[in-house]
Amino acid sequence: MSLIRVLLADDHVVVRQGLRALLEAEPGLQVVGEVSDGEEAVGTSQALRPDVVVMDLAMPGLNGIEATRRITANPGSPRVVVLSMYADVEHTVHALQAGASGYVRKQDADTELVAALRTGSPSNPFLTSSIDRRLVEEHLRRARAIGTQAAPYQPLTPRERQVLQLVAEGKANKQIARRLSIAIRTVEAHRASIMRKLNLDSQASLVRYAVRAGIVGVEE
Questions:
Q1: How does pLDDT run across 14-26, given as a tens digit for each residue?
Q2: Is the Cβ–Cβ distance between 126 and 103 less than 8 Å?
Q3: For residue 7, what are the CA distances in angstroms to 37, 142, 166?
Q4: Which stretches of 16-164 are assigned E, i.e. beta strand?
Q5: Is the domain covering 158-212 a CATH 1.10.10.10 domain?
């Protein structure tokens, strides 16, 4: 049995500790690193070159969907298995369209995560048993037929998506500018573009939108 090297990406230390204990008790699995946000996941996956990244969705700074999209963008990149509290078709489809090789509920990690790590692939993703595969496949077929991505924030550029998340997390323009190393005026321009493209009219509507889209979420 060949060794599978795993990187854990979750913003909760206790969750990562539990996952490490679960995976390292299995033959042929080795946890090679842990990170607490999406940006770290992208950078560390490039540095460590794991075989699989176990990815939480609701992480600060850069959410799991965007991190998955960046990690899987290049040929030969690590596989990504999403591990999330969300068990709905919409989040599952978003993850698969971003390039995930599997989607497992956190509640099912003890019985399904190892199988997802060993068998999931972009062409034949592993789906948690509580999700209706037929519905997921139908959503994916429909999106392919009309040539669109299911992600509701698809019209946004990668930078706008990141600004959207930081705004929804309550960061001020000055904090966002410092975080992204851009000018405050640039942040303001991105915010205006986001509101226009998504047809939003207030900070509150932006936050509600981000929660519905899984860009930010409740504590996992």
A1: 999 999 999 999 9
A2: yes
A3: 12, 33, 24
A4: 29-35, 52-55, 79-84, 102-105, 126-127
A5: yes
